Amino acid sequence: MGEEVRFGDIVPRAPMPNLLLQDVDYQATTSHRGTWRRYLHPNGNLYAEFTSTATVLGLPLVHYTRGISPETGRFTTARGFVAVGRRAVGVIAVGRMAAGIVAVGQLCVGVVGFGQAAIGLAVIAQIALGIGFAIGQLTTGFVCIAQLGVGNWVLGQVGVGTHVWSMRVKDPAAIDFFRSFADAAGWRW
């Protein structure tokens, strides 16, 4: 029937080919707007990438990526003036991890950031680590609006800072500041 294999015996196997070293047969479509490259993995997962023809400051105007690259076996970082992908770096970046002047994502770093966790000058996020302005559930910044905020001017359920308007602390300077802030934003009480 066959040879008996005991524990510790080495059974030679044929080497498995490295699929990442093979040429990739992309479906490519080029137009005056840019180039789409698509690849359907054997398991049914799609890789797609769009790079616009137009450039701004040496970057493609739009760079979009989706899925795992068949060349590297990893997610490709979208890099462009407008970058959209799982990981994105650009002036305007949208992705799970995003970095840019305006960054939108689950984890983002930017001058202006919107996401689940954001770091920047002005941020709106669940966890907002802002330098100047922050809105979120847990925030830091010079001006904070939060459930739990730490900063100079804090409006929140719980606040720590120089001027706090919270459930327990009602600093008159903070009340005046945030009321004037709301009036300037057009919010009416």
Detailed description of the structure:
It is built from one helix and nine strands, in the order E-E-E-E-E-E-E-E-E-H. By secondary structure, the chain is mainly beta. It folds into two domains: 20-95, no CATH class; 108-189. The strands form two sheets. A seven-stranded mixed beta sheet has the order 1-2-3-6-7-8-9. A hairpin with a 5-residue loop joins strand 2 and strand 3 (46-52). The longest helix is centred in the C-terminal third of the chain and has 14 residues, at 172-185. The chain starts with 26 loop residues before the first strand and ends with a helix. The mean pLDDT is 90.
**β-strand amount:** over 45%
Q: What's the β-strand tally?
A: 9
Helix percent band: under 10%
Spatially, the strands of the biggest sheet line up as: 1-2-3-6-7-8-9
Low-confidence stretches: none
Q: Output the helix-strand order.
A: EEEEEEEEEH
Q: Using the alpha-carbon principal axes, give the shape.
A: elongated
Distance between the termini: 86 Å
Rg over alpha carbons: 25 Å
Please outline the major beta sheet: 7 strands, mixed
What is the overall pLDDT average?
A: 90
How many helical stretches? 1
Based on secondary structure, the structural category is: mainly beta
Instruction: Count structural domains.
Output: 2
Q: SSE layout and pairings?
A:
Layout: E1 27-30, E2 34-40, E3 46-52, E4 55-56, E5 59-60, E6 62-66, E7 77-84, E8 87-94, E9 97-165, H1 172-185
Parallel strand pairs: 6-7, 7-8, 8-9
Antiparallel strand pairs: 1-2, 2-3, 3-6, 4-5
